[in-house]
Amino acid sequence: MSPFLAELIGTMVLIIFGDGVVANVVLQKSKGHNSGWIVITTGWALAVTIAVYMVGSISGAHLNPAVTIGLAAIGKFSWALVPGYIAAQMLGGFLGGVVVWLAYLPHWGATPDQGGKLAVFCTGPAIRQPAANLLTEIIGTFVLVAGILAILRPENLVPNSGFEKGFAPFLVGLLVAAIGLSLGGPTGYAINPARDLGPRLAHAFLPIAGKGSSEWSYAWVPIIGPIIGGVLGALFFKACW
What we know:
Elements: H1 3-26, H2 37-59, H3 65-73, H4 82-103, H5 105-109, H6 114-121, H7 130-151, H8 163-183, H9 193-205, H10 221-240
Helix pairs in contact: 1-2, 1-4, 1-6, 2-8, 3-4, 3-10, 4-9, 7-8, 7-10, 9-10
């Protein structure tokens, strides 16, 4: 498998589990309906963990343009590979959204809430203040990228133990859980342009009953914010460790 195919599949799996848990909680007549924020944050953390386990050994499991650009900004990834990685991540996000739509096919018509249907695919602010929402996404992705780089430092690994391969995906998932629980409330913690834009495009194109707007006026926030935060997080790591 090529790294680009791995990024596509990994991001698709991330969205299948991540958007899938949101669908389970938000869509009416689902058995997980109204099970709450803890279920959503747990589902997303496990989604990241599983996706990283699946493709980490092939592509590094960036699964996120903010991670890819952040690593390139500090010389840990080739700029020449960035466009292909991002294209694969976006396509994977779109396809993941399509799979979730298919998995919950009877529930779209049973759910009258247009905002809830959109929330399955992409993020939105609890209080719409673009500058504040942008800052939240910057902070969340700063913590994500700096945290990944710091947690997985060689100094934290036991030589020849296989620790990095065996536990690194779990630790990244734990970090995502912490971000969701602590910083996710204001914007839904996109912290990943592909996680938001790919499924948002799926929402726009799919024949979802009574789906309403895809909220393109807000879509720039979970794209620009994570990219800024990812670069700043990577630069912070490089300066401090």
